[in-house]
Task: structure prediction
Amino acid sequence: MRRRKGNRFRRKKTLAQRMAPLLRYARVLGLAASVAASAAALHALYVKLLHSPYLAVDEITVVGAGRLDDAEVLRYCGLGVGENILALDAAAAAEALESHPWIARAVVRKRLPSSVIVEIEERKPVAVVRLDDLYVMDADGVVFKRAEPGDGLDLPVVTGLGALARRGGDGVGSDPGLETELIDLLDLLRRRKGFNADAVSEIHVDPVYGFTIFTLDDGVRIELGRGGHGRKLGLLDRVAAARARGLEGLEHIYLNARRGVVLRPVTPGTQGQA
Result:
């Protein structure tokens, strides 16, 4: 006699249970349709706003321009009156401005409904650097462009950097201490009274012997060496004040001497030759 396998009883699902997956699916479809409709509505609204005269730029303010005029700044970043403010790419405009050699930093801000503010920080030139050609250096030590006659610069010329110099925004030397000292010396000469940057024709840089200044008048050679530039230039002021003709008649001044200041008069027949 065959034995029946154990009875298996299955409960029949109720109608509600059978309909539950369909209802969930319907809800998902409804939500998706709602999202799609909302997205379509938002897109249509955005397209409408892009063509709204209410959001057309009618005022652009340039802040920080000195060497550059406002028109050149706007031309360089591509901004103009009439452009829709929502379509305006502020980050791209700022990036374009920072590619200009005279602009160190730039920020472009949008102010709804129709105003744009362009803020720039121009580079402050402090010296002309002689490398393979003449280049302009800013107050941060960045050699940022080739010097041109139209720049209208009357600045000390820095020489002696040679292979130490790096261009393209990387600074002026492979010796960080020498680079910092050069920047500090240029800043000191710009700020101080007495002997200052207006009297300097050239600053020669040597990684071993330090800094040598040549004056604009008479080409007097002033040995500064390294370190203590403020104190040494103070000694130079005292020398100039103590002499009836200032530095005239001197060929060489050693401010880096261990025993104090050493003066060498002009050799007869060489005055005025640098």
User: Anything to note?
Assistant: The chain has a mean pLDDT of 83. The first helix runs from residue 15 to 50. The longest strand covers residues 103-111. The two ends are 131 Å apart (CA to CA).
